[in-house]
DNA sequence: ATTGGTGCAAAGCTTTTGCAGTAGC
DNA sequence: GCTACTGCAAAAGCTTTGCACCAAT
C-alpha cells in the first residue's frame, strides 16, 4: 500500500526544523506560514505539508477551544511511551504537562472493556486549571 | 453585568425544541440550519442563537471529528454529569461513544494531585479501535 | 526523464456581520 | 414606542485545489 514514494524537499526540511524548535508551543497554520514565508515556503505548501505530516503521525493536529484555526505541534521522535500528558485550560488556554498513573489505568481499562487503544500522545485533556477556577474570570 | 434583557422569540423556541428532541445526536450548524429552514428560521439566526445559547451554557459546542464544522448538543436541564465520552479512531476516523468508570477516577485524581478540573465533555480520546487494530492500518 | 512537490491565485466552506425591517415587552 | 431580534446578502476567515512550472530521484 505504501507505494507512493515521498521526496525530501527543502520546504519540508525547513518546516520540520521549525516545528522541532518550537515543539513546546502550539502553532496555528497561519502563524507557521507567516514565519516561514521569509524562508521561501508558501502558504499552500505549509498547509499541504502540515496535513501530510499529521497523517503520518509526525505532528499533532488539534483544535484549541473556541478558536477556529487548527493548531499543530511536533511529536518528539524519542517519546514512544510518553511519560507526560497534555492538558489545556479552556479559560486561559495555557498548556500544562502532567503525569498521572490513573491515565495508564484508564488506558488499560478501555483496552479491555471497549477494545479502544488510546494514544495518550494525541489525546489532549480539556478543562479548567486551578488558577482560572479561583480567579473565575470570563 | 447581565443588564441586557433577552426576548423569547419564535425562532429561539423552535431551535430549542429541535435541539431537545435531538439531544442524543451531534448536530452541525449546517444540519440544524437545513432542518429549520422550513420552519422559518434563517441560517444567520441559527448561528447567532447557537452561539448565544452556548455562551449561556444551554448547549454544548465542540469539535468532534477532525473535520471543520462545530457540533452542538443540548444539555439536559437535569443531567449535569453527562454519562458518555468520545473516542475517535485515528485510522478509520469513526467516532465512538463509551462509558467507563475509570474516567471519573482519573478526573478525581487530577483534581486532587494536579488541580486540573477536566471537562470530559470537551476532551476527546484518540487512538485506534479494535477493528483497525486487527485489520492493519491503511 | 519521470513525476511528486511547489507557488500562485482562485475557489470552497463555514461562520460572522451590516443594515433595514420586524416583533417582543 | 423602544430596541433586541431576524433575514438577507455580502464579507470575512481558514483551508483546499487547479494548473503550470520546478526539482528530487
Q: Could you walk me through the main structural features you see in this protein, from its secondary elements to its overall organization?
A:
The structure is a homodimer of 138-residue chains. Chain A has 2 domains: 10-74, Orthogonal Bundle (Arc Repressor Mutant, subunit A), CATH 1.10.10; 85-133, 2-Layer Sandwich (Dna Ligase, domain 1), CATH 3.30.1490. Chain A has 138 residues and is of the alpha+beta class. Helices cover 37% and strands 22% of the residues of chain A. In chain A, strands 1-3-2 form a 3-stranded antiparallel beta sheet. The first copy, chain A, has a 3-stranded mixed beta sheet with strand order 5-4-7. The first copy, chain A, starts with 9 loop residues before the first helix and ends with a helix. At the A-B interface, helix 4, strand 6 and strand 7 of A face helix 4, strand 6 and strand 7 of B. Strand 6 (116-118) of chain A pairs antiparallel with strand 7 of chain B. The structure holds a DNA duplex (25 and 25 nucleotides).
Mean pLDDT over the full residue set of chain A: 79
| Helix/strand class of chain A | alpha+beta
How is the quaternary structure best described? homodimer
Regions with little confidence, pLDDT below 50 for 5+ residues of chain A: none
Would you report the number of β strands of chain A?
A: 7
Biggest sheet architecture of chain A: 3 strands, antiparallel
The span between the termini of chain A is: 50 Å
Provide the CATH architecture of the largest domain in chain A.
Orthogonal Bundle
In percent terms, what proportion of residues of chain A is strand? 15-25%
C-alpha-based Rg of chain A, rounded = 17 Å
Overall, the morphology of chain A is: globular
Q: In DSSP terms, counting alpha (H) and pi (I) runs of 4 or more, how many helices of chain A?
A: 5
Percent helix among the residues of chain A? 25-40%
Query: Structurally, how many domains make up the residues of chain A?
Result: 2
What is the CATH first-level class name of the largest domain in chain A?
Mainly Alpha
CATH topology of the largest domain in chain A: Arc Repressor Mutant, subunit A
The secondary-structure element order of chain A is: HEHHEEEEHEEH
- How is the largest sheet of chain A built, in terms of strand order? 1-3-2
CATH superfamily of the largest domain in chain A: Winged helix-like DNA-binding domain superfamily/Winged helix DNA-binding domain
Largest interface: A-B, 36 and 33 residues
